[in-house]
Amino acid sequence: MNSAHRGTGRIAAVSSNGEYSFTKPNRPSITLLAGLGVEGDVHAGVTVKHRSRVAADPTQPNLRQVHLIHRELFDEVASAGFSVEPGELGENVTTEGIDLHALPTGTLLRLGREAVVEVTGLRNPCPQINAFQDGLLKQVVGRDEQGRVVRKAGIMGVVHQGGTVRPGDTIEVTLPAPPHVPLDRV
């Protein structure tokens, strides 16, 4: 197991928004609610809250209660001329020190002392990213050497155990039992 999977990460920022908008303002803390998501956030709930998912089937379980992005992505897109700050891509938790995209489905993330989020899959980057900054979508979705789609706009999860989460809190990673299932879009 590499160091990215031994709980060496930390929370760089937390964000939430009670209204539909692409970005989410940073907060001094957020409260995660078991089975629901981020208290007061527009995407919190037992069933889907993302508009496209609601239109398809509003009774689907909400596997996208918490959106996490690694701060290192912002450095990567900066090298291509883009400026992105925590919360601007709509994430609730901006992390540091953990390769989120390398985690398997079912990984448990302890955020701070109490909150536990189970990783459900990848965020599927949408065209709104280009409305935020033209050309940014190509930086967060592309193809690997084999032609497979690579999504880098963060991961999604559901809240197993609630608690308050703040910038500076540690992140402990617990991998599920093998065999590990790679993340796919949810």
Structural description of this entry:
The protein has four helices and 13 strands. With 186 residues, it is α+β, with helices and mostly antiparallel strands. The longest helix has 7 residues, at 72-78. The radius of gyration is 15 Å and the shape is globular.
Features:
186 residues; alpha+beta; 7-stranded mixed β-barrel; 3-stranded antiparallel sheet; 31% strand
Number of strands: 13
Largest sheet: 7 strands, mixed, barrel
Broad structural category: alpha+beta
Which shape, going by the Cα principal axes? globular
Write the H/E string, N to C.
EEEEHEHEEEHHEEEEE
- What distance lies between the first and last C-alpha atoms, to the nearest angstrom? 26 Å
The value of Rg in angstroms is 15 Å
Strand order of the largest sheet: 1-6-5-11-8-7-13
β-strand percent reads: 25-35%
Helical run tally: 4
Look at the structure and give the mean pLDDT: 93
- Helix share, percent: 10-25%
Low-confidence stretches: 1-6
Element layout with pairings:
Layout: E1 9-15, E2 26-27, E3 30-33, E4 37-38, H1 51-56, E5 66-70, H2 72-78, E6 93-96, E7 108-111, E8 115-122, H3 128-132, H4 136-140, E9 141-143, E10 149-151, E11 155-161, E12 163-165, E13 170-174
Parallel strand pairs: 5-6
Antiparallel strand pairs: 1-2, 1-6, 1-13, 3-4, 3-12, 5-11, 7-8, 7-13, 8-11, 9-10
Question: Quick summary of this structure?
Answer:
The chain has helices at 51-56, 72-78, 128-132, 136-140, and strands at 9-15, 26-27, 30-33, 37-38, 66-70, 93-96, 108-111, 115-122, 141-143, 149-151, 155-161, 163-165, 170-174. With 186 residues, it is of the alpha+beta class.
